[in-house]
Amino acid sequence: MLLWQLMEKTKGIEEELRATKEEKTREGKQFSSEIARISAQLQQETRRFEKELSSAEGWLKEKDAKLKEAEKAQEGLRSEMERMREVCGKVEQLEKLVENKDKCIQRSDTIIERLMSENASLKGEK
Fold this sequence. Notes:
The protein is mostly helical and 126 residues long.
């Protein structure tokens, strides 16, 4: 009888072990399935991210090229402004020269008028 009870207990333990094994096998398959699903999702997200990254890199290259063009244009404007400053300086010098010339002409006219007046009065005295 003891042998029979032992066999029954062994049978029960074997059934329990088989049920546990089947449950763990099911859980393992579900876990593997979940891992495969997550892996596929990660691959899809990675491809999407790589496309977005590539697009962003293209956008950055385009903006960098435009920035370089703008910097060249700005440098051109700086040199043009410097040239204009030089021209303005020369124009100011010319304006001063013209102003001095006008003053000299006025003085000359005044001197000529005075000399003509003195000459006329000298002729009148003779």
